[in-house]
Design brief:
7-stranded antiparallel beta sheet; single chain; 483 residues; 6-stranded mixed beta sheet; globular
Length: 483
Amino acid sequence: MNSHKWFSIFIAFIFCSNYVFAQGTTCTNAITIPLNGTCNSYSVSTTTGSSIHCTGSGFGGNGRVTYFRFTTNATPECVLLDMITSVAGVKLEAVLFSGCTAGTPTGGDAYQSICMTDGSGVWGSNLWWSNLVANTTYYLRVRTENGFTGTIQICGKYNTPTNNLCAGATAIDATLYADNNTCNTGSTEVTPASLCAGSLENTSWYSFTVLTTGTTSIIISSMNCDNANFPGNNDYGFQIGFFTGSCGSLSSLNCVAQTGSSGGTIIATTPALTAGTVISVAIDGFAGSNCKYSIQAINSVPLPVKLKYFEGWKGVQHNLLRWVTTSEENNNYFEIERSNDGISFIAIGRISGRLYSQSEISYSFNDNSPLQIGYYRLKQVDIHKLISYSRVIKIERNNLQEFKVVFANPVQDIFRLNIETTKQGIVQMNIVDVAGRTMLLESLNCNKGINQFNIDLSKLQTGAYFLVIIQDGIRKTYPVIKY
Protein backbone atom coordinates (compact mmCIF):
# COMPACT_ATOMS: atom_id res chain seq x y z
CA MET A 1 0.00 0.00 0.00
CA ASN A 2 1.48 3.36 -0.97
CA SER A 3 2.13 6.21 1.44
CA HIS A 4 -0.81 8.25 0.14
CA LYS A 5 -3.30 5.52 1.06
CA TRP A 6 -1.70 5.06 4.48
CA PHE A 7 -1.96 8.80 5.07
CA SER A 8 -5.67 8.82 4.05
CA ILE A 9 -6.46 5.95 6.41
CA PHE A 10 -4.54 7.66 9.22
CA ILE A 11 -6.45 10.93 8.72
CA ALA A 12 -9.78 9.06 8.61
CA PHE A 13 -8.87 7.22 11.81
CA ILE A 14 -7.96 10.45 13.59
CA PHE A 15 -11.18 12.11 12.40
CA CYS A 16 -13.37 9.21 13.50
CA SER A 17 -11.55 8.87 16.81
CA ASN A 18 -11.99 12.54 17.57
CA TYR A 19 -15.66 12.33 16.60
CA VAL A 20 -16.32 9.47 19.01
CA PHE A 21 -14.20 11.13 21.67
CA ALA A 22 -16.18 14.34 21.30
CA GLN A 23 -19.58 12.79 21.93
CA GLY A 24 -21.41 14.22 24.91
CA THR A 25 -19.07 17.17 25.44
CA THR A 26 -21.95 19.63 24.91
CA CYS A 27 -25.69 19.32 24.52
CA THR A 28 -25.20 19.91 20.76
CA ASN A 29 -23.50 16.52 20.35
CA ALA A 30 -25.30 14.86 23.25
CA ILE A 31 -25.33 11.06 23.26
CA THR A 32 -28.71 9.60 22.34
CA ILE A 33 -30.09 7.11 24.86
CA PRO A 34 -32.23 4.43 23.19
CA LEU A 35 -35.44 3.88 25.15
CA ASN A 36 -35.95 0.27 24.14
CA GLY A 37 -34.92 -1.51 27.33
CA THR A 38 -31.29 -2.04 26.31
CA CYS A 39 -28.25 -1.28 28.49
CA ASN A 40 -25.22 0.53 27.07
CA SER A 41 -21.95 1.79 28.52
CA TYR A 42 -20.76 5.32 27.73
CA SER A 43 -17.37 6.91 28.36
CA VAL A 44 -17.56 10.18 30.26
CA SER A 45 -16.61 13.20 28.18
CA THR A 46 -13.61 15.50 28.62
CA THR A 47 -15.83 18.42 29.61
CA THR A 48 -15.63 19.40 33.27
CA GLY A 49 -17.96 21.43 35.43
CA SER A 50 -19.23 21.98 38.92
CA SER A 51 -22.33 20.51 40.49
CA ILE A 52 -25.54 22.35 39.61
CA HIS A 53 -27.87 20.90 42.19
CA CYS A 54 -26.27 18.33 44.49
CA THR A 55 -24.22 19.33 47.52
CA GLY A 56 -22.12 17.55 50.10
CA SER A 57 -19.06 15.32 49.99
CA GLY A 58 -18.08 14.23 46.50
CA PHE A 59 -20.11 16.89 44.69
CA GLY A 60 -17.52 19.67 44.92
CA GLY A 61 -14.82 20.65 42.42
CA ASN A 62 -14.90 20.15 38.67
CA GLY A 63 -16.15 16.69 37.78
CA ARG A 64 -16.63 15.23 34.32
CA VAL A 65 -19.83 16.38 32.59
CA THR A 66 -21.44 14.25 29.88
CA TYR A 67 -24.59 15.25 27.98
CA PHE A 68 -27.24 12.76 26.94
CA ARG A 69 -30.55 13.17 25.17
CA PHE A 70 -33.73 11.19 24.72
CA THR A 71 -37.01 11.71 22.89
CA THR A 72 -40.44 11.14 24.40
CA ASN A 73 -43.09 9.10 22.65
CA ALA A 74 -46.62 10.16 21.69
CA THR A 75 -48.21 9.47 25.10
CA PRO A 76 -45.79 10.68 26.56
CA GLU A 77 -44.81 7.83 28.85
CA CYS A 78 -42.45 8.22 31.76
CA VAL A 79 -38.79 7.82 30.85
CA LEU A 80 -36.87 5.50 33.19
CA LEU A 81 -33.07 5.41 33.26
CA ASP A 82 -31.21 2.87 35.39
CA MET A 83 -27.70 4.24 35.85
CA ILE A 84 -24.47 2.94 37.39
CA THR A 85 -20.82 4.00 37.21
CA SER A 86 -18.09 1.49 36.40
CA VAL A 87 -16.42 2.24 39.74
CA ALA A 88 -18.56 1.67 42.82
CA GLY A 89 -19.23 4.70 44.98
CA VAL A 90 -18.51 7.36 42.33
CA LYS A 91 -21.24 9.93 42.81
CA LEU A 92 -23.63 10.94 40.01
CA GLU A 93 -25.69 14.06 39.48
CA ALA A 94 -28.37 14.06 36.77
CA VAL A 95 -30.16 17.31 35.81
CA LEU A 96 -32.84 17.59 33.11
CA PHE A 97 -33.00 20.38 30.51
CA SER A 98 -35.70 21.04 27.94
CA GLY A 99 -33.55 22.74 25.30
CA CYS A 100 -30.10 23.32 23.84
CA THR A 101 -28.88 26.60 22.33
CA ALA A 102 -25.38 26.91 20.81
CA GLY A 103 -24.09 24.09 22.98
CA THR A 104 -25.60 25.44 26.19
CA PRO A 105 -28.51 23.59 27.85
CA THR A 106 -31.60 25.66 28.59
CA GLY A 107 -34.75 25.22 30.63
CA GLY A 108 -33.20 23.43 33.58
CA ASP A 109 -35.64 21.66 35.91
CA ALA A 110 -34.44 21.35 39.50
CA TYR A 111 -37.42 19.15 40.38
CA GLN A 112 -36.21 16.50 37.93
CA SER A 113 -32.67 16.46 39.38
CA ILE A 114 -31.34 13.48 41.30
CA CYS A 115 -28.24 12.88 43.40
CA MET A 116 -26.93 9.30 43.31
CA THR A 117 -24.54 9.30 46.23
CA ASP A 118 -23.41 5.71 45.71
CA GLY A 119 -23.02 5.96 41.93
CA SER A 120 -26.07 3.90 41.02
CA GLY A 121 -29.82 4.31 40.98
CA VAL A 122 -32.82 5.13 38.85
CA TRP A 123 -33.77 8.47 37.30
CA GLY A 124 -37.27 9.05 36.01
CA SER A 125 -39.20 11.90 34.49
CA ASN A 126 -41.80 11.52 37.26
CA LEU A 127 -39.31 12.32 40.02
CA TRP A 128 -41.75 14.85 41.48
CA TRP A 129 -44.30 15.24 38.71
CA SER A 130 -44.48 14.51 35.01
CA ASN A 131 -44.07 17.58 32.85
CA LEU A 132 -42.72 16.15 29.61
CA VAL A 133 -44.18 17.03 26.22
CA ALA A 134 -44.95 14.31 23.68
CA ASN A 135 -42.50 13.66 20.82
CA THR A 136 -39.95 16.10 22.24
CA THR A 137 -36.18 15.81 22.77
CA TYR A 138 -34.80 16.48 26.25
CA TYR A 139 -31.24 16.76 27.54
CA LEU A 140 -29.71 15.22 30.64
CA ARG A 141 -26.53 16.66 32.12
CA VAL A 142 -24.77 13.85 33.99
CA ARG A 143 -21.85 14.79 36.22
CA THR A 144 -19.45 12.36 37.86
CA GLU A 145 -17.27 13.34 40.78
CA ASN A 146 -13.82 14.89 40.39
CA GLY A 147 -11.18 12.45 39.08
CA PHE A 148 -13.48 9.84 37.56
CA THR A 149 -12.64 8.93 33.93
CA GLY A 150 -14.47 5.63 33.50
CA THR A 151 -17.83 4.69 32.03
CA ILE A 152 -21.50 5.01 32.93
CA GLN A 153 -23.95 2.23 32.12
CA ILE A 154 -27.44 3.48 31.31
CA CYS A 155 -30.45 1.24 30.70
CA GLY A 156 -33.31 3.27 29.23
CA LYS A 157 -36.96 2.54 28.49
CA TYR A 158 -40.42 4.05 28.36
CA ASN A 159 -42.27 2.90 31.44
CA THR A 160 -45.91 3.09 32.50
CA PRO A 161 -46.20 1.60 36.01
CA THR A 162 -48.98 -0.92 36.38
CA ASN A 163 -49.47 -0.39 40.12
CA ASN A 164 -49.93 3.37 40.20
CA LEU A 165 -53.55 2.91 41.31
CA CYS A 166 -55.16 0.78 44.00
CA ALA A 167 -57.10 -1.09 41.29
CA GLY A 168 -53.83 -2.13 39.66
CA ALA A 169 -52.12 -3.19 42.88
CA THR A 170 -49.47 -5.87 42.40
CA ALA A 171 -50.38 -9.09 44.23
CA ILE A 172 -47.55 -10.26 46.52
CA ASP A 173 -46.89 -13.09 48.94
CA ALA A 174 -43.84 -14.28 50.90
CA THR A 175 -41.81 -14.58 47.68
CA LEU A 176 -39.50 -11.62 47.03
CA TYR A 177 -40.78 -9.37 44.26
CA ALA A 178 -38.32 -6.89 42.68
CA ASP A 179 -39.74 -3.49 41.75
CA ASN A 180 -39.12 0.26 41.67
CA ASN A 181 -41.27 3.35 42.19
CA THR A 182 -39.46 5.59 39.74
CA CYS A 183 -42.32 6.31 37.35
CA ASN A 184 -45.15 6.19 39.88
CA THR A 185 -46.93 9.42 40.78
CA GLY A 186 -48.32 10.57 44.10
CA SER A 187 -51.55 8.85 45.06
CA THR A 188 -54.78 10.85 45.14
CA GLU A 189 -56.81 7.86 46.37
CA VAL A 190 -55.61 8.20 49.96
CA THR A 191 -54.37 11.08 52.11
CA PRO A 192 -50.71 11.63 52.96
CA ALA A 193 -51.60 11.27 56.65
CA SER A 194 -52.81 7.71 56.04
CA LEU A 195 -49.23 6.89 54.96
CA CYS A 196 -47.64 8.87 57.83
CA ALA A 197 -46.41 11.32 55.19
CA GLY A 198 -46.42 15.05 54.67
CA SER A 199 -46.89 14.64 50.92
CA LEU A 200 -47.04 11.86 48.34
CA GLU A 201 -44.79 11.92 45.25
CA ASN A 202 -44.33 8.35 43.93
CA THR A 203 -46.81 5.86 45.40
CA SER A 204 -46.80 2.14 44.53
CA TRP A 205 -49.69 -0.18 45.39
CA TYR A 206 -49.55 -3.85 46.47
CA SER A 207 -52.09 -6.32 47.86
CA PHE A 208 -52.10 -9.62 49.74
CA THR A 209 -54.46 -11.83 51.75
CA VAL A 210 -53.86 -12.67 55.43
CA LEU A 211 -53.00 -16.36 55.86
CA THR A 212 -53.64 -16.95 59.58
CA THR A 213 -55.32 -14.72 62.16
CA GLY A 214 -52.78 -12.35 63.69
CA THR A 215 -50.41 -9.64 62.57
CA THR A 216 -48.84 -9.51 59.14
CA SER A 217 -45.79 -7.65 57.87
CA ILE A 218 -44.29 -6.44 54.67
CA ILE A 219 -40.52 -6.43 54.32
CA ILE A 220 -38.86 -4.07 51.85
CA SER A 221 -35.24 -5.04 51.30
CA SER A 222 -32.26 -4.51 48.96
CA MET A 223 -33.19 -0.83 48.82
CA ASN A 224 -31.26 1.57 46.63
CA CYS A 225 -32.84 4.99 47.10
CA ASP A 226 -31.83 8.41 45.81
CA ASN A 227 -33.33 11.86 46.16
CA ALA A 228 -33.06 15.38 44.82
CA ASN A 229 -30.44 16.21 47.42
CA PHE A 230 -30.30 14.14 50.58
CA PRO A 231 -26.86 12.77 51.52
CA GLY A 232 -26.28 9.13 52.45
CA ASN A 233 -26.16 5.76 50.76
CA ASN A 234 -29.32 3.64 50.58
CA ASP A 235 -30.54 5.09 53.87
CA TYR A 236 -33.90 6.49 52.85
CA GLY A 237 -36.99 4.40 53.07
CA PHE A 238 -40.73 4.50 52.65
CA GLN A 239 -43.92 5.87 54.07
CA ILE A 240 -46.28 2.89 54.25
CA GLY A 241 -50.04 2.62 54.71
CA PHE A 242 -52.20 -0.49 55.22
CA PHE A 243 -55.85 -0.47 54.11
CA THR A 244 -58.89 -2.73 53.98
CA GLY A 245 -62.00 -2.39 51.82
CA SER A 246 -62.41 -1.96 48.09
CA CYS A 247 -60.54 0.53 45.95
CA GLY A 248 -62.39 3.84 46.04
CA SER A 249 -63.67 3.04 49.52
CA LEU A 250 -60.58 2.19 51.55
CA SER A 251 -60.36 2.18 55.34
CA SER A 252 -56.99 2.95 56.88
CA LEU A 253 -55.57 0.42 59.36
CA ASN A 254 -52.25 1.98 60.33
CA CYS A 255 -49.18 3.54 58.80
CA VAL A 256 -45.42 3.49 59.31
CA ALA A 257 -42.63 5.79 58.11
CA GLN A 258 -39.14 4.29 58.23
CA THR A 259 -35.74 5.03 56.81
CA GLY A 260 -33.68 2.05 55.77
CA SER A 261 -31.54 0.17 58.27
CA SER A 262 -28.11 -1.24 57.46
CA GLY A 263 -28.43 -3.20 54.22
CA GLY A 264 -31.44 -1.19 53.14
CA THR A 265 -34.27 -3.08 54.85
CA ILE A 266 -37.46 -1.90 56.55
CA ILE A 267 -40.32 -3.86 58.15
CA ALA A 268 -43.87 -2.60 58.64
CA THR A 269 -46.49 -4.57 60.60
CA THR A 270 -50.28 -4.45 60.66
CA PRO A 271 -52.57 -4.81 63.69
CA ALA A 272 -53.98 -8.31 64.33
CA LEU A 273 -56.28 -9.30 61.46
CA THR A 274 -58.61 -12.17 60.69
CA ALA A 275 -57.46 -14.83 58.22
CA GLY A 276 -58.76 -14.11 54.72
CA THR A 277 -58.65 -10.33 55.08
CA VAL A 278 -57.50 -8.64 51.88
CA ILE A 279 -54.95 -5.91 52.53
CA SER A 280 -54.05 -3.07 50.18
CA VAL A 281 -50.63 -1.54 50.79
CA ALA A 282 -49.47 1.86 49.56
CA ILE A 283 -45.78 2.74 49.79
CA ASP A 284 -44.30 6.13 48.96
CA GLY A 285 -40.62 7.06 48.73
CA PHE A 286 -39.44 8.98 51.80
CA ALA A 287 -39.15 12.67 50.77
CA GLY A 288 -39.92 11.66 47.18
CA SER A 289 -37.03 9.21 46.88
CA ASN A 290 -36.69 7.06 43.78
CA CYS A 291 -35.98 3.51 44.91
CA LYS A 292 -35.20 0.04 43.61
CA TYR A 293 -36.18 -2.65 46.10
CA SER A 294 -37.63 -6.08 46.77
CA ILE A 295 -40.92 -6.50 48.63
CA GLN A 296 -42.65 -9.47 50.29
CA ALA A 297 -45.60 -10.07 52.62
CA ILE A 298 -45.19 -12.29 55.70
CA ASN A 299 -48.20 -14.34 56.91
CA SER A 300 -49.82 -13.98 53.48
CA VAL A 301 -51.73 -16.50 51.41
CA PRO A 302 -49.38 -17.97 48.77
CA LEU A 303 -50.40 -16.80 45.34
CA PRO A 304 -52.04 -19.77 43.61
CA VAL A 305 -50.84 -18.67 40.19
CA LYS A 306 -47.43 -17.43 39.17
CA LEU A 307 -47.76 -15.24 36.08
CA LYS A 308 -44.80 -15.08 33.72
CA TYR A 309 -46.41 -12.22 31.81
CA PHE A 310 -49.72 -10.61 30.89
CA GLU A 311 -49.74 -8.52 27.72
CA GLY A 312 -52.08 -7.07 25.11
CA TRP A 313 -51.93 -6.60 21.35
CA LYS A 314 -54.06 -4.69 18.85
CA GLY A 315 -55.73 -6.75 16.12
CA VAL A 316 -57.56 -5.25 13.16
CA GLN A 317 -60.95 -5.30 14.88
CA HIS A 318 -60.10 -6.73 18.31
CA ASN A 319 -57.66 -6.58 21.20
CA LEU A 320 -55.76 -9.81 21.87
CA LEU A 321 -54.83 -10.54 25.49
CA ARG A 322 -52.20 -13.16 26.24
CA TRP A 323 -50.78 -14.51 29.48
CA VAL A 324 -48.57 -17.38 30.59
CA THR A 325 -48.47 -19.09 33.98
CA THR A 326 -45.42 -20.95 35.26
CA SER A 327 -47.32 -22.78 38.04
CA GLU A 328 -50.92 -23.12 39.17
CA GLU A 329 -52.40 -24.44 42.40
CA ASN A 330 -56.16 -24.68 43.02
CA ASN A 331 -56.65 -22.37 40.02
CA ASN A 332 -60.35 -22.45 39.16
CA TYR A 333 -60.65 -19.73 36.51
CA PHE A 334 -59.50 -16.37 35.17
CA GLU A 335 -62.00 -13.56 34.74
CA ILE A 336 -60.96 -10.93 32.20
CA GLU A 337 -61.88 -7.44 33.39
CA ARG A 338 -61.93 -4.20 31.40
CA SER A 339 -62.15 -0.52 32.33
CA ASN A 340 -62.39 2.76 30.45
CA ASP A 341 -60.62 4.74 33.22
CA GLY A 342 -58.30 2.25 34.95
CA ILE A 343 -60.37 2.45 38.15
CA SER A 344 -63.78 0.79 37.67
CA PHE A 345 -63.58 -2.66 36.03
CA ILE A 346 -66.26 -4.99 34.65
CA ALA A 347 -65.95 -8.63 33.60
CA ILE A 348 -65.97 -9.28 29.84
CA GLY A 349 -65.00 -12.96 29.77
CA ARG A 350 -63.95 -16.06 31.71
CA ILE A 351 -61.43 -18.81 30.97
CA SER A 352 -61.00 -21.95 33.06
CA GLY A 353 -57.68 -22.56 34.80
CA ARG A 354 -55.75 -25.84 34.96
CA LEU A 355 -56.29 -26.39 38.73
CA TYR A 356 -52.78 -27.83 39.22
CA SER A 357 -49.77 -27.33 37.00
CA GLN A 358 -46.00 -27.01 37.36
CA SER A 359 -45.31 -26.27 33.69
CA GLU A 360 -45.88 -23.20 31.52
CA ILE A 361 -49.49 -22.80 30.35
CA SER A 362 -50.49 -20.24 27.70
CA TYR A 363 -53.85 -18.47 27.64
CA SER A 364 -55.45 -15.93 25.31
CA PHE A 365 -58.67 -13.94 25.01
CA ASN A 366 -60.08 -11.71 22.25
CA ASP A 367 -61.95 -8.52 23.12
CA ASN A 368 -64.03 -8.18 19.97
CA SER A 369 -65.57 -4.87 21.05
CA PRO A 370 -62.49 -2.87 22.06
CA LEU A 371 -62.61 0.64 23.48
CA GLN A 372 -60.70 3.62 22.18
CA ILE A 373 -58.68 3.45 25.39
CA GLY A 374 -59.06 0.21 27.34
CA TYR A 375 -57.54 -1.02 30.58
CA TYR A 376 -57.39 -4.76 31.29
CA ARG A 377 -56.58 -6.96 34.25
CA LEU A 378 -56.94 -10.63 35.15
CA LYS A 379 -59.00 -11.65 38.16
CA GLN A 380 -57.77 -15.07 39.26
CA VAL A 381 -60.17 -17.13 41.41
CA ASP A 382 -59.12 -20.38 43.10
CA ILE A 383 -61.33 -23.31 44.15
CA HIS A 384 -61.76 -21.74 47.60
CA LYS A 385 -62.95 -18.48 45.99
CA LEU A 386 -59.79 -16.61 47.01
CA ILE A 387 -59.04 -13.82 44.54
CA SER A 388 -55.88 -12.20 43.21
CA TYR A 389 -55.37 -9.66 40.43
CA SER A 390 -52.77 -9.23 37.72
CA ARG A 391 -51.15 -5.98 36.79
CA VAL A 392 -53.23 -3.57 34.68
CA ILE A 393 -52.35 -3.12 31.01
CA LYS A 394 -53.50 -0.33 28.73
CA ILE A 395 -54.29 -0.57 25.01
CA GLU A 396 -54.98 2.56 22.95
CA ARG A 397 -56.65 2.34 19.57
CA ASN A 398 -56.29 5.79 18.04
CA ASN A 399 -57.45 4.40 14.69
CA LEU A 400 -60.44 2.52 16.11
CA GLN A 401 -63.10 2.30 13.45
CA GLU A 402 -66.38 3.69 14.62
CA PHE A 403 -68.82 1.38 12.86
CA LYS A 404 -69.49 -2.34 12.47
CA VAL A 405 -71.11 -4.13 9.56
CA VAL A 406 -73.08 -7.40 9.83
CA PHE A 407 -74.87 -9.27 7.02
CA ALA A 408 -75.73 -12.79 5.87
CA ASN A 409 -73.46 -14.17 3.16
CA PRO A 410 -74.19 -15.45 0.51
CA VAL A 411 -77.20 -13.29 -0.36
CA GLN A 412 -80.16 -13.55 -2.72
CA ASP A 413 -82.23 -10.68 -4.11
CA ILE A 414 -82.68 -8.79 -0.81
CA PHE A 415 -79.46 -7.84 0.94
CA ARG A 416 -80.18 -7.39 4.68
CA LEU A 417 -77.49 -5.09 6.00
CA ASN A 418 -76.92 -4.05 9.63
CA ILE A 419 -74.62 -1.09 10.37
CA GLU A 420 -73.78 -0.21 13.96
CA THR A 421 -72.17 3.22 14.33
CA THR A 422 -71.13 5.41 17.24
CA LYS A 423 -72.36 8.61 15.61
CA GLN A 424 -75.09 9.88 13.33
CA GLY A 425 -74.31 10.61 9.68
CA ILE A 426 -74.20 9.45 6.08
CA VAL A 427 -72.60 6.07 5.30
CA GLN A 428 -71.72 5.38 1.69
CA MET A 429 -72.37 1.83 0.43
CA ASN A 430 -70.80 0.52 -2.79
CA ILE A 431 -71.20 -2.85 -4.46
CA VAL A 432 -68.32 -3.43 -6.88
CA ASP A 433 -67.46 -6.40 -9.07
CA VAL A 434 -64.13 -8.23 -9.17
CA ALA A 435 -62.95 -5.85 -11.91
CA GLY A 436 -63.51 -2.88 -9.59
CA ARG A 437 -66.56 -1.50 -11.41
CA THR A 438 -69.30 0.07 -9.27
CA MET A 439 -72.51 -1.91 -9.66
CA LEU A 440 -74.55 -0.16 -6.98
CA LEU A 441 -73.98 3.07 -5.04
CA GLU A 442 -76.20 4.32 -2.21
CA SER A 443 -75.95 6.86 0.60
CA LEU A 444 -77.42 5.47 3.81
CA ASN A 445 -78.60 7.81 6.56
CA CYS A 446 -77.51 6.21 9.85
CA ASN A 447 -78.44 7.08 13.40
CA LYS A 448 -76.22 6.35 16.37
CA GLY A 449 -76.59 2.68 17.24
CA ILE A 450 -77.81 -0.22 15.07
CA ASN A 451 -79.33 0.57 11.66
CA GLN A 452 -81.03 -2.02 9.45
CA PHE A 453 -81.33 -1.74 5.66
CA ASN A 454 -82.85 -3.97 2.98
CA ILE A 455 -81.00 -3.45 -0.30
CA ASP A 456 -82.45 -4.76 -3.58
CA LEU A 457 -79.83 -6.79 -5.45
CA SER A 458 -82.25 -8.52 -7.82
CA LYS A 459 -80.68 -6.84 -10.88
CA LEU A 460 -77.20 -8.17 -10.06
CA GLN A 461 -76.09 -11.34 -11.78
CA THR A 462 -74.94 -14.25 -9.65
CA GLY A 463 -71.26 -14.19 -8.82
CA ALA A 464 -68.61 -12.64 -6.55
CA TYR A 465 -68.70 -8.97 -5.50
CA PHE A 466 -67.28 -6.67 -2.86
CA LEU A 467 -69.23 -4.55 -0.38
CA VAL A 468 -67.45 -1.26 0.39
CA ILE A 469 -68.66 0.82 3.36
CA ILE A 470 -67.25 4.32 3.94
CA GLN A 471 -67.91 6.71 6.82
CA ASP A 472 -65.86 9.84 7.48
CA GLY A 473 -62.92 8.49 5.52
CA ILE A 474 -62.95 5.10 7.27
CA ARG A 475 -63.28 2.37 4.67
CA LYS A 476 -64.22 -1.30 5.12
CA THR A 477 -64.39 -3.93 2.40
CA TYR A 478 -66.14 -7.32 2.57
CA PRO A 479 -66.52 -10.12 0.01
CA VAL A 480 -70.12 -10.87 -1.00
CA ILE A 481 -71.51 -13.85 -2.95
CA LYS A 482 -74.76 -13.32 -4.91
CA TYR A 483 -76.71 -16.42 -5.90
